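Researcher: Next entry in the queue.
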Amino acid sequence: MFKSASQVYGCGALAVILTGMGTDGALGAGDIAAAGGSVIAQDEATSVVWGMPGSAAHAGVCSAVLPLDEIAPK
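Model: Structure for this entry, 74 residues:
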């Protein structure tokens, strides 16, 4: 889904990676970042499982890594 969004919206795309397992979100988030879009990941302290947001953060594709309550205002 993120790959499609990056192709359609380019620099206007926004990906938000929330708590969860796996790494597939990081792959798509990389597509968003490469297209000039923004990627926000939930931080480890507020994640139940930091697998998905952590993989995006470690991949260096995030514009920001924030606590859950700070994502919506951003």
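Model: The chain has four helices and three strands.
Researcher: Noted, moving on.
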